[in-house]
Amino acid sequence: MHRLHPLYLDILSADAARPPYDRQRLQLGIVHLGIGAFMRAHLAAATEAAIAAGDPRWGIVGVSLRQPDTRDALQAQDGLYTLAIRDADAQGRPRQRLQVIGAVRRLLVAPENPQAVLDAIAATDTRIVSLTVTEKGYCHDPATGALRLDHPDIVHDLAHPEAPRSAIGMLVSGLRRRFAEGRSPLTLMSLDNLPANGRVLRGAVLRFAEAVDPALARRIADGCRFPSSMVDRIVPRTTDADRAAVSQALGAEDRWPVLGEPFFDWAVEDEFAADRPDWTLGGARFVADAEPYERLKLRMVNGTHSSLAYLGAMAGWQTVDQAIAQPALRGHIEALMRDEIEPTLAALPGLDLPAYRTNLLARYANPALAHRTHQIAMDGSQKLPQRLLGTVRDRLAAGLPVPRMALGVAAWMHYLRGVDERGQAYAVDDPHAADLTALYQRSLGQGASAEAVQAMLSYAPVFGDLAGNAVLAAALLGPLQSLQARGVQATLDAVNRGELAA
Ligand code: CS2
After folding, report:
1. Strand partners of residue 8
2. pLDDT, tens digit, for every residue of 42-88?
3. What residues have CB less than 8 Å from 334, skipping those under 6 apart?
4. Cα 363 to ligand 1 centroid, rounded to whole Å
5. How far is the CA of 380 from the centre of ligand 1 (A)?
6. What residues are in contact with ligand 1 under a 6 Å CB criterion?
7. CATH architecture type of domain 291-496
């Protein structure tokens, strides 16, 4: 089978869409840090639509911050890859729609050549530097959102600004070079699942710049823009089987396709230092304030996703669709949204929460994604604060009970055990894994008790000011005891009957 390549687009299956424009004419207007699957199914797809409508300024330079695998696979395809949009037909049979995306024109691997990344940030045509570096990529304290100047990568980058490792170090060194060369300020745009992601990014960049050179920090603060955005599309990790299936359907070998659901949402603040693509052509909305959209999405989608992932992974339900097909889990997730999350959300123009909830349950039931519960379970220390604990704080402050929210937090704690209910061991994949699993062993590992729950809650990077909160501790104890003694299924049944509430 031929490799996917611009010279051989005519051999592709007739129903695969391909770039309807001259890729040679693309300028490189966007530098993207963290060219993983999510970005290629989201930002790149929306940018492709703007380019296809006739604006060639927005070719993308994709930067990998760690591994060379994306560059290695995509270079041989001249940057082309397939986006496979998967769902099921009316009979429940999986189906996919293929689109070859052409927007990625250059690929860099930061550790191999950090200078090339700084050059790209400084280049005249660059207008936007966007980021999908995951929560931990911000080197911040998850509970407060502030950059950690003692984070090993930040310590390194402050000492070696010419060869940065962290996204924050790269941005500041790239901007320093850009300003030294007399070029205009940029838009720095986070697409990660953090609340006020633009403000978190701005805070981290300015704090780092301040430590390097206060005049540079002022220049960045005055000229650069940091729009916040809410991004939503489920993009599971691509497997070898997916690569084979996509290549087969495409009629050419694609070693680096991405999969996604049909659903796409992106509310981005219209706050740019210079031009930007018309991403509305690819389904985006420009809004004045993204925060209410972020809160909605982080709490409803990511909050329930994480709850489902910890419960599902412990029960041995491997994928999201398998988990949501369990009536007790489905009932719990639905009630979690309706009874505990939705009352904390502000009204938004055009938002119908019951319809949003029903649609989300349908997205989770998509049988064609095989989104693994353990994948969503990773990096819990970075995810819990914005996904679960914000809702918990709001409800506790209003004197409202949190029985179902507490079950999600308890399931995360239980997951730190490292063995599921079927006796299957797994590695807890989290930048705080060593501390957290040790804390678990010392406390809950000895059996859930009031003291053990308090010990877990005192883990400040995750729980911050919730340490010592007696109401939350009491709400966690019942679910934890039940998860340990009876397992996920019986605990869900009990919670659904209204038992275990503190
Ligand atoms: C998921 C998200 O892996 C995870 O933690 O919750 O990646 C989720 O699929 C997306 O945010 C959906 O937009």
Report:
1. none
2. 999 999 999 999 999 999 999 999 999 999 999 999 999 999 999 99
3. 357, 361
4. 12
5. 12
6. 193, 232-234, 301-302, 305, 375-376
7. Orthogonal Bundle (1.10)
